[in-house]
Please model this.
Amino acid sequence: MGIDYGTKRTGIAVTDPLQLIASGLDTVPTEAIFDFLTGYMAAEEVERIVVGLPLYPDGNPAQIAPQVEQFVKKLQKLFPMLAVNTWDERYTSEEAKRIILQSGARKKQRRDKSLVDKVSAVLILEDYLKTHIWQSFS
Model:
């Protein structure tokens, strides 16, 4: 599972059991994220959670990074049986906007910030999978 944490909304992506394809699952109001995840974990098998860590271009933590680290700690406490990793999410929002624009989405869809959050979560998960899982196939 990939998570793009935000102060208002949190984008969520998942992968198939073979960990080949990352797909956007949902965007959830951040105040409801733990209820959502608890329900999802009860219904679906999740092996790992990858949370995007916001960094500035120079590699220093972005302003929201301490909130993300608190979120990760709460995830680890709530789901101790799961591995929880952070992953560099630099430029994912910009890349998500570019992908949405290239997809031919209408102007209203391109302005939908929840769609950007969901696509950003997919990009975080894909990048993690590419680095950790897919390399073992090559």
